[in-house]
């Protein structure tokens, strides 16, 4: 009988619990033994293992965060740390490992697969920065969290006739800013993939004000700069009141959306299927409406894709 372990690593994302639930219940349905590893690769090295049953994952599909907790591990980045992790898997009789996380977590799974550990990765990150898949678990929820904030900020921005600069997460990937900015009707969306001209931005804001525009909403991805510095610059150049709002880690929390719950469930089910079929060193993803799987080396080498068409649409509608 196979023993499958599951861990969550890196930044938490809404829908991780739904993925854990799917992995555990699918594995149990297929008569596997399941272990949960707490605190990611750090917990793996330290042997923080707990047996998982159907009741272990009851009433978690609607919860944000991760019941297995997550932590970053500097020790795992070393060869000695990874050897300890492999030894711990052997000590607990674990045959296969499902890793839920982002790019860094997948690189950890990649290293373990090179050490003959059967691994499958599930993409869980709000940043949506794994190019091989259209969407990652947590992205849709994060975008809707930002959209809710934008809707509220627009009300007060209009009332005070001011510029509102909203800084969102995503590191060097502007997807959260692009999707939420388009859906929220932002006048300007500033992305690391495209860059921007501050002087031109200020000129456009002033021209729109003269034409009678009551407010201006700017969505700024964190990877290109800070909202406070930009708001200060706008106010200095245009004389129009500008306020900055940094949404921060509220984007990571909250009950996952329907899309994220379903996506996580599909990913978790497919991950166990792959292990059952003897297919390892794989990652699951989605292209169009189809669940896919790729070799982990291939997936991590896929170049970053930016949706220029969606960006063009956003600018046309601004």
UniProtKB/TrEMBL annotation:
Catalyzes the phosphorylation of D-fructose 6-phosphate to fructose 1,6-bisphosphate by ATP, the first committing step of glycolysis. Substrate binds at residues 125-127, 162, 169-171, 222, 243, 249-252. Residues 4-275 form the Phosphofructokinase domain. ATP binds at residues 11, 72-73, 102-105. InterPro entries: ATP_PFK, ATP_PFK_prok-type, PFKA_ATP_prok, Phosphofructokinase_CS, Phosphofructokinase_dom, PKF_sf. The lineage of its organism: Bacteria, Bacillati, Bacillota, Clostridia, Eubacteriales. It is an enzyme of class 2 (transferase). PROSITE patterns: PHOSPHOFRUCTOKINASE (PS00433). Allosterically activated by ADP and other diphosphonucleosides, and allosterically inhibited by phosphoenolpyruvate. Pathway: Carbohydrate degradation; glycolysis; D-glyceraldehyde 3-phosphate and glycerone phosphate from D-glucose: step 3/4. Pfam families: PFK. It is found in: Cytoplasm. ADP binds at residues 21-25, 154, 185-187, 211, 213-215. Homotetramer. PANTHER family: ATP-DEPENDENT 6-PHOSPHOFRUCTOKINASE, PHOSPHOFRUCTOKINASE. It catalyses: beta-D-fructose 6-phosphate + ATP = beta-D-fructose 1,6-bisphosphate + ADP + H(+). This is ATP-dependent 6-phosphofructokinase. Belongs to the phosphofructokinase type A (PFKA) family. ATP-dependent PFK group I subfamily. Prokaryotic clade 'B1' sub-subfamily. Keywords: Allosteric enzyme, ATP-binding, Cytoplasm, Glycolysis, Kinase, Magnesium, Metal-binding, Nucleotide-binding, Transferase. The active site is at 127 (proton acceptor). Its EC number is 2.7.1.11. The gene is pfkA. It comes from the Bacteria.
């Amino acid at each position: 009988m196979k023993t499958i372990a599951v861990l969550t690593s890196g930044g938490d994302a809404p829908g991780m619990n739904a993925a854990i639930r799917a992995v555990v219940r699918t594995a149990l349905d297929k008569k596997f033994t399941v272990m949960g590893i707490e605190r990611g690769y750090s917990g793996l090295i330290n042997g923080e293992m707990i047996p998982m049953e159907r009741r272990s994952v009851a009433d978690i599909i609607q919860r944000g965060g991760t019941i297995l907790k997550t932590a970053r591990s500097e020790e795992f980045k070393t060869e000695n740390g990874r050897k300890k992790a492999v030894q711990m898997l052997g000590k607990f009789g674990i045959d296969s490992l499902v890793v839920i996380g982002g790019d860094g977590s997948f690189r950890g799974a990649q290293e373990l697969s090179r050490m003959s550990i059967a691994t499958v990765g599930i993409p869980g990150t709000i940043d949506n920065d794994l190019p091989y898949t259209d969407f990652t678990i947590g992205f849709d929820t994060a975008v809707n969290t930002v959209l809710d904030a934008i809707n509220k900020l627009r009300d007060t921005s209009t009332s005070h006739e001011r510029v509102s600069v909203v800084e969102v997460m995503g590191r060097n990937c502007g997807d959260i800013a692009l999707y939420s900015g388009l859906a929220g009707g932002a006048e300007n969306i500033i992305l690391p993939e495209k860059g921007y001209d501050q002087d031109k931005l200020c000129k456009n804001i002033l021209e729109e004000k003269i034409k009678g525009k009551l407010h201006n909403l700017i969505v700024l991805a964190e990877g290109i700069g800070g909202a406070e510095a930009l708001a200060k610059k706008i106010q200095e150049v245009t004389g129009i009141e500008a306020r900055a709002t940094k949404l921060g880690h509220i984007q990571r929390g909250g009950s996952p959306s329907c899309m994220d719950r379903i996506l996580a469930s599909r990913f978790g089910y497919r991950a166990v299927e792959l292990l059952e079929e003897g297919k390892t060193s794989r990652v699951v993803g989605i292209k169009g409406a189809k669940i896919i799987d790729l070799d982990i080396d291939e997936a991590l080498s896929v170049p970053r894709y930016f949706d220029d068409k969606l960006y063009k649409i956003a600018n046309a509608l601004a």
